[in-house]
Design goal:
197 residues; alpha/beta; Rossmann fold; 6 helices; 7 strands; 31% helix; 21% strand
Amino acid sequence: MLSRRRFAQAVVAATAGATVAGCSAQPAAAPAATPATTGGNTSFGPIKQIDAGDLSIGYAEAGPVGGPVVVLLHGWPYDIHSYVDVTPRLVAAGYRVIVPFLRGYGPTRFLSEDTFRNGQQSAIAADIVALLDALKIDKAVFGGFDWGARTAVIIAALWPERCKALVSVSGYLVTNRETNKQPLSPAAELGWWYQYY
């Protein structure tokens, strides 16, 4: 079994590589071979689609159906291909890996034209909880970077019973808008000078 440290190292390494490499992956709908364990992969196998909450979510899935579940969440402006090289490592360790396109990406679409569109932290997290429900997954390990990290942290905070473990890389803080209205000490404010620009 993959230790927590090895899992975190694998997710961090794949995420860092995706961040440096940029967003040059093939379109999500293009069928391709299942990712191999050699690295340098460019695509997942056929993308699955499932209705979950307000969305029809496109996602890649690999690994044994009965294995412990890992949900990998991409950031902006990247997509699921950020995890195309780490997925085979997790599958080799016995994990079932789910990599969804977040709202606004790939084949993920709203089910109704009348649904209000927003990118609130809790809305994106609720999308992933709805995906877990649709896939009949009670609990998962969440890994994410950027928006994906923020989404994973929100799930851990609002739905802790759904979160077995969390790997959050280069994410945003969970914000409390009321607290943010209060001034910090002058020394702390100086450290955040760039926020005003």
